[in-house]
């Protein structure tokens, strides 16, 4: 069975489709289970007036409507928590009281900006931008416990096109570039009984997902087992994108399972 465990709806400030539309897309593509992971970005300076928190009444009603319309598709209630130093306690409190099945912990805002906007890259070399991202992720993930997987390790590399003034496009980082930082991140997750995700959205940019395959191989070498795969879709057209390819990649990197979650408990499915 195919599972898409990173799906955004219009509940997110940047989503473009309803939960029912996401479920319809899953049904059309033979996806048996999806998890809605709309953004929780407490403290994040959202541009354009978007709300960084989730309207739980709206979210729950939308889930009920989608489940009723598509009973053949399992739809789990998840969240993507954007980590921001100084707000980790508030984020954990929100997670504890809102009954999620699944929590992704992601690093979007880094010191003074989000790579999505491009300003983050000003006055930084690609290597400085990458190392700063990993350092911020490491510092937050060591302190933050209430999550299930770390989202898109390599998020910063999706936006390397912002270095359009360089003759040669910078390359995404691999395990060998920052082995100590990456090991700290992976070992922290493993030590807490948590895991990582394969995020397939990066296939559009670099031809492989995040994290880089070398990091997936290292995760397997360290004994990591908890793994989810998600499209990071923000529209119904992207639901399920490259999930089978990512499953095959995970297996080739030495990983044995893909996980689904119910009430924060993982179920392991052989790849």
Order of helices and strands: EHEHEHEHEHEHHEHEE
CATH superfamily annotation: Metal-dependent hydrolases
Major sheet characteristics: 7 strands, parallel
Overall 3D geometry?
A: globular
Task: Characterize the structure shown.
The chain has 271 residues and is of the alpha/beta class. The protein has a single domain, classed as Alpha-Beta Barrel (TIM Barrel), CATH 3.20.20.140. It is built from eight helices and nine strands. A seven-stranded parallel beta sheet has the order 1-2-3-4-5-6-7. It has a two-stranded antiparallel ribbon with strand order 8-9. Helix 4 runs parallel beside helix 5. It is globular and about 50 Å long.
Topology at a glance:
Elements: E1 2-7, H1 19-28, E2 31-40, H2 56-69, E3 74-82, H3 88-97, E4 102-106, H4 126-143, E5 149-150, H5 179-191, E6 195-199, H6 203-206, H7 213-221, E7 227-230, H8 243-252, E8 257-262, E9 265-270
Parallel strand pairs: 1-2, 2-3, 3-4, 4-5, 5-6, 6-7
Antiparallel strand pairs: 8-9
Helix pairs in contact: 1-2, 4-5
Summarize it.
By secondary structure, the chain is α/β, with parallel strands linked by helices. The protein has one domain (2-270): TIM Barrel (Alpha-Beta Barrel), CATH 3.20.20.
Which keywords apply here?
271 residues; alpha/beta; TIM Barrel; 7-stranded parallel beta sheet; two-stranded antiparallel sheet; 8 helices; 9 strands; 32% helix
